[in-house]
Amino acid sequence: MHQYIHKYFALHKTVTLPGIGSFTVETQNAKLDFIEKISYPPQYSINYNTYDKADDTFHSFLLKETGAHDAIERFNDFAQHLKEQLDNHRTVTLQGLGTLTKNGKSYSFVADNSVQKYFPTVAAERVIRQSAEHTVRVGEQHRTSTEMHEHLKRKVIKEENWLVTALVLGVIGVAAIALYYLIK
Questions:
Q1: 152-161: string of b/e by CB count within 10 Å (b at 16+)?
Q2: Sign of the C-alpha dihedral, residues 98, 101, 27, 49?
Q3: Nearest-10 crossing angle of helices 2-12, 56-66
Q4: Quick one: which of 9, 44, 157, 183 could link to 15 by a disulfide (CB 3.0–4.6 Å)?
């Protein structure tokens, strides 16, 4: 019965055990650290609640998975057996969920966080594609990267033309001064 509970829990992120309580997954979003160039995975935590209303969706799932007509009765017997184990031994390990312990009249739960090993941190390197065209916002206008490359090339050419013109005028000026002093 453990494998069916675990499978249903993995698919639906919640499961209810009659007479014991319900288990739900709470998810924290993935995080990106730009400075360290690391992408942290989402964090999952399993919460326990004493709320134990019967889940018809789980019953349908159980009937479909086992194919047995008495699957719901076997599940209820299994839950009753877990409750008796908690009353006698005070500790029950639920595979893939965690450890449930009886404290007086209530239960305490310690989650098994083994799911975190499936989500390691990932390096987040910046990918630059030279030939890929994308939209760039320039002031209040949207232009493509190709338009901006052409615009910047025109500016460089104009700056180079200015430099050539200045050099030619400088050479002419130096030649004129030299000619003036040579003729005198």
A1: eeeeeeeeee
A2: positive
A3: 120
A4: 9
Sorting pLDDT into bands at 50, 70 and 90, what band is 178? very high
Phi, psi of 3 (to 5 degrees): -65, -35
Average pLDDT over residues 6-30: 85
Residue 103 has a pLDDT of 81
Q: Cα separation of 18 and 25, whole Å?
A: 18
pLDDT classification of 115: cutoffs 50, 70, 90 = low
Phi, psi of 119 (to 5 degrees): -125, 80
Instruction: Tell which phi-psi region holds residue 85, choosing left (phi > 0), alpha (psi between -120 and 50) or beta.
Output: alpha
Quick one: how far is CA 145 from the chain centroid?
29
Q: Where exactly are the structural domains of the chain?
A: 2-123, 142-183
State pLDDT tens for residues 35-83.
888 888 888 888 888 877 777 888 888 888 888 888 888 888 988 888 8
Where do we find the tokens 């349908």? 60
Cα–Cα distance between 30 and 39 in angstroms, integer?
Answer: 7
